[in-house]
């Protein structure tokens, strides 16, 4: 049977989160030796929106930024990648979040340092926002576990948006995206678990509050690099509890700071699928997980067959590692599919 992929027409995507300024020393320098920085902008949700927009999806981003030159520059950067930003709020007070990236090389790992406390996004009172009005007319909402880690206001934002999306019938995806620099494991589990009844498509499975039929914590019962059988068992337990439409999880094998491998497992249509293993060199690792999420969302919108879908998602992440900045700016679906076949020849 020949599988016919669907057009993107009719899909309207929106995501919500904090956009930050990224400062990176050139030439893999250590921060303590840096005298200059490269400036870009990014954030988990913004990265997904930009990746989808570059692939031709009608993608919109909601955030709160300070009404300053830096806040406007961040939004301008998103707009330059064809992301619609009309719902964004320019707030009085607060600041734009910043993170510093010290890029690793060879045996030296990359490091991220956050400077985002007191940001306009984390301080905003979201009880004043009409989320049903913002979400009306969209077909897909994407949220991330990074947002509720920032403040109680951001936890409220996440729940407001999820409930409104469910009432409006949107497909909802959620990336667990645990960041130990922002909150501890148990706090993250307690919070994220409350969001899961509103989620259709889940990325990542940690941290989730779930025990198997023997009362063993899922976190302890699944090894870091599971077999197909082990991963299938966990996916089925998650699906039985929350009735997810799809679950995606990518696994990273670190050979050095400059060379990794990726593969993925995906629950889809009542079955677990496993991708090929891709080994590659790294130019810039940040945003790789977001590229995986955007690749899977794109593939679901196009109604790719499951084997193509899981490999397209992994290949999207792999190709992101070849680009500076947080965004996967690939604007050619076929180039990702070519990478799926591990064809690296020059394109003329």
Notes on the structure:
Strand 12 and strand 13 form a beta hairpin. This protein has helices spanning 44-54, 69-79, 120-123, 131-135, 152-168, 185-195, 218-221, 228-242, 288-301, 306-320, 333-340; strands at 12-16, 20-24, 38-42, 58-62, 64-66, 89-91, 98-102, 111-115, 140-144, 171-175, 201-203, 246-254, 259-268, 271-274, 278-281. Strands 1, 4, 9, 10, 11, 12, 13, 14 and 15 form a 9-stranded mixed beta sheet that branches. The protein has a 4-stranded mixed beta sheet with strand order 3-2-7-8. A two-stranded parallel ribbon has the order 5-6. It is globular. The model has no long low-confidence stretch (mean pLDDT 92). With 348 residues, the chain is an alpha/beta fold. Helices cover 33% and strands 22% of the residues. It contains 11 helices and 15 strands. The two termini are 32 Å apart.
The stretches of 5 or more residues where confidence is low (pLDDT under 50) are none
Helical run tally:
11
The total strand number stands at 15
Element-level helix/strand string: EEEHEEHEEEHHEHEHEHHEEEEHHH
**How much β-strand is present in the residues?**
15-25%
Mean pLDDT: 92
Task: Outline the biggest β-sheet.
Answer: 9 strands, mixed
Q: How far from one another are the termini? A: 32 Å
State the helicity in percent bands: 25-40%
> What is the approximate shape?
globular
Question: By helix and strand content, what is the structural category?
Answer: alpha/beta
Supply Rg: 19 Å
Give a concise summary.
Strand 7 (98-102) and strand 8 form a beta hairpin.
Q: What descriptors fit this protein?
A:
348 residues, alpha/beta, nine-stranded mixed beta sheet, four-stranded mixed beta sheet, 15 strands, 33% helix
């Amino acid at each position: 049977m020949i599988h016919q992929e669907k057009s993107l027409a009719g899909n309207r995507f929106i995501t919500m989160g904090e956009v930050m300024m990224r400062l990176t020393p050139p030439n893999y320098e250590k921060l303590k030796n840096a005298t200059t920085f490269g400036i870009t902008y990014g954030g988990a949700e913004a990265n997904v929106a930009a990746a989808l927009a570059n692939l031709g999806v009608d993608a919109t981003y909601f955030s709160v930024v300070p009404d300053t030159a830096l806040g406007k520059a961040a939004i301008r950067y998103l707009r330059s990648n064809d992301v619609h930003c009309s719902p964004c709020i320019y707030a009085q007070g607060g600041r734009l979040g910043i993170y510093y990236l010290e890029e690793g090389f060879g045996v030296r790992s990359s490091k991220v340092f956050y400077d985002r406390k007191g940001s306009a996004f984390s301080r905003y009172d979201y009880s004043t926002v009409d989320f049903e009005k913002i979400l009306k007319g969209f077909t897909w909402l994407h949220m991330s576990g990074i947002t509720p880690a920032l403040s109680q206001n951001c936890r409220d934002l996440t729940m407001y948006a999820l409930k409104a999306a469910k009432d409006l019938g949107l497909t909802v995806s959620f990336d667990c995206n645990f960041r130990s620099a922002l909150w501890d494991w148990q706090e993250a589990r307690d919070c994220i678990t409350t969001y899961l009844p509103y989620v259709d498509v889940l990325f990542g499975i940690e941290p989730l509050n779930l025990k198997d039929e023997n009362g063993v914590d899922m976190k302890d019962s699944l090894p870091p690099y599971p077999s197909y059988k082990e991963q299938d068992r966990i996916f089925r337990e998650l699906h039985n509890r929350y009735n997810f439409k799809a679950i995606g999880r990518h696994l990273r094998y670190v050979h050095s700071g400059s060379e990794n491998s990726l593969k993925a497992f995906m629950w889809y249509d009542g079955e677990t699928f496993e991708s090929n293993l891709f080994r590659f060199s790294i130019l810039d690792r940040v945003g790789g997980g977001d590229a995986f999420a955007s690749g899977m969302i794109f593939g679901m919108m196009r109604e790719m067959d499951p084997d193509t879908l899981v490999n397209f998602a992994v290949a999207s992440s792999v190709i992101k590692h070849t680009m500076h900045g947080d965004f996967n700016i690939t604007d050619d679906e076929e180039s990702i599919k070519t990478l799926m076949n591990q064809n690296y020849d020059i394109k003329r």
